[in-house]
Specification:
Distance between the termini: 74 Å
Number of strands: 7
Radius of gyration: 21 Å
Largest sheet: 7 strands, mixed
Structural class: alpha/beta
CATH architecture of the largest domain: 3-Layer(aba) Sandwich
Number of helices: 9
CATH superfamily of the largest domain: Vaccinia Virus protein VP39
Shape: globular
Strand order of the largest sheet: 3-2-1-4-5-7-6
Number of domains: 2
Strand content: 15-25%
Helix content: 40-55%
Order of helices and strands: HHHEEHEEHEHEHHHE
Length: 275
C-alpha cells in the first residue's frame, strides 16, 4: 500500500512538469550584446563581458585572431555586430543575418545583408574570413550552413567559429544543438574544411561559477515584473552582490588555463584548402 502511494505521488509529480516542447519564449533573457558606441558604452560593454563569461570568453578569442584579418570578413549571424570594432582598418566587413533576426533574436542593426536561411547572397562570396560566433546552435541544418561558409571563402580562407556547450536554453525556441569537439571536427571536415583546431573556453570551475551566477541573475536583473516586484527582488538579492562579484573574479581567473571537458563552449578555427 505504501509502495502504491509512492508511485501515485511520482506520477502526479511527473504530470505537473511542463511540456517544454510547447515553450515559445525565454523565461529570462540576457541583455543584447551591443557594441559600445561611446567611451562610457565601451566601459559598460567591458564590465558586461567580465561578468558574462560566455560573452567575455568569445570576445577574448575573437580579439586574439581579429588583428590578423585582411580583405573581406563575413560576419554570419552578426546580431548587433559587437566584434566589428576589433577588425583592422581597411577590412571589407559584411554583416549577414536572417531576415527575421529582429523578431527571433531582437537584433536590427543597419547595413546588414539579409537572407532567408538558404543560399548566401552574392555579397558574401570571395571572403577571406568567415566569422560565426554563437550562431550554429540556432541553425536547424548546421551542415548546410557550413557548406555555405566553405563556398563563400576564397581558397585558403579561414573560418573562426564559436559555439556554447555548458549554456542555458536561450532564444527559445530557436536553440537546437550543443556540439562536442568530435561533432565539430566531423561537420567541418564533411564540409571540406581542413586544419580544424578546437579549443575549450574555460573548464569545470568556470562552469560552476557561471551556473551559480545564473541562480542570482533573475533576482538582480528581474524581467517581466512590475516595478514594485523588481525593486523587491533586487533588495532581496542585494546581500549576494559581493558573492556574485567573487564568482566573477574566480571564473575569469579559471579561464587562464587550457580549459577542460566541461567548459563554457568551444572556439574553432579551420581553413578552406588552397587550390
Amino acid at each position: 500500500m505504501l509502495e502504491s502511494a509512492r508511485k501515485r505521488r511520482i506520477l502526479v509529480a511527473r504530470s505537473e512538469r511542463a511540456n517544454l516542447a510547447l515553450r515559445s519564449a525565454d523565461k529570462w533573457r540576457p541583455p543584447a550584446l551591443e557594441p559600445g558606441q561611446s567611451a562610457l558604452g565601451r566601459v559598460l560593454a567591458g564590465v558586461r563581458r567580465y561578468f558574462d563569461f560566455q560573452a567575455g570568453s568569445c570576445w577574448a578569442d575573437v580579439a586574439a585572431e581579429a588583428g590578423s584579418f585582411r580583405g573581406k570578413v563575413v560576419d554570419v549571424g552578426c546580431g548587433a555586430q559587437p566584434y566589428r570594432e576589433l577588425l583592422p582598418a581597411g577590412v571589407d566587413y559584411v554583416g549577414l543575418d536572417i531576415a527575421n533576426a529582429e523578431t527571433a533574436f531582437g537584433y536590427a542593426p543597419p547595413n546588414v545583408v539579409h537572407f532567408d536561411g538558404g543560399s548566401w547572397p552574392a555579397a558574401t562570396h570571395d571572403a577571406d574570413v568567415v566569422l560565426c560566433t554563437e550562431v550554429l546552435e540556432h541553425v536547424l541544418d548546421p551542415a548546410a550552413t557550413l557548406a555555405e561558409a566553405f563556398a563563400a571563402l576564397k581558397p585558403g580562407g579561414r573560418l573562426l567559429l564559436t559555439v556554447p556547450f555548458a549554456a542555458r536554453w536561450h532564444f527559445v525556441p530557436h536553440d537546437y544543438w550543443r556540439y562536442t569537439p568530435s561533432s565539430l571536427n566531423h561537420l567541418l571536415e564533411a564540409a571540406g574544411f581542413r586544419k580544424v583546431v578546437v579549443h575549450a573556453r574555460g573548464g569545470a570551475l568556470t562552469v560552476a561559477c557561471y551556473k551559480v551566477q545564473a541562480l542570482f541573475l533573475p533576482f538582480l536583473m528581474p524581467q517581466q515584473a512590475s516595478a514594485a516586484k523588481a525593486f523587491a527582488l533586487r533588495l532581496l538579492a542585494s546581500p549576494s552582490i559581493p558573492f556574485f562579484v567573487a564568482l566573477a573574479v574566480v571564473g575569469n581567473l579559471s579561464m587562464r588555463g587550457q580549459g577542460g571537458d566541461d567548459c563554457l563552449g568551444y572556439t574553432v578555427t579551420a581553413e578552406r584548402p588552397s587550390e
